[in-house]
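Board notes (copied after class):
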Amino acid sequence: MTSWWSVAGLGLSAALMPGALQTFFFAQAVQRGWRGAWYLAFTPLLSDGPVVAFTLWALGRLPLAWLDSLRWVRAGVLLWLAWRLARTASAAAEPAAARGQVRTLAQAVSINWVNPNVYVFWATVLGPPVLAVWQDDPWAGLQLVAVFYAAIVLASLALLAVFSRAHGLPAVWRARLTRLSAALLAGFGLVLVLRG
């Protein structure tokens, strides 16, 4: 039986693992501050439903090569977001809390949708035990999923709170940090392309 603590630990580690989504969180928190970025912590709740449903359906039905093709899509999305972020670096000095929250959330969701790690995680780490628990007790399976996502959201809120401290920096530093975030996102995208 999978324990709540181990599932909460998986959620915590998923939220804190450095990657493209955390880099995007950092850039948005620097530009927008806490009030303009806190809602991004709920990205996995919006993005993972279709990912989990597809992954659990695809287990045993599709060859693993589809994950390789997803890498190219992810590289394109990350490079596009890096370009957009670099273009907005000079705007990091202006108040951005109300500017494009729905679009920003959609961008965060798209990062998760094209992240092969989410699919692999659900196919290998959390999917099988949740399905096993679900077969015995669907309510217990739902509780495991709820604990996992509660841990992700709470850890992401904490991460965004820490990142938002940089919003108080002078405008020139916010612009530099935004450019750094854009470079990191581009780096993630280029690594995916070079692995080709």
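Comment from the instructor: The mean pLDDT is 82. The chain has one domain: 4-195.
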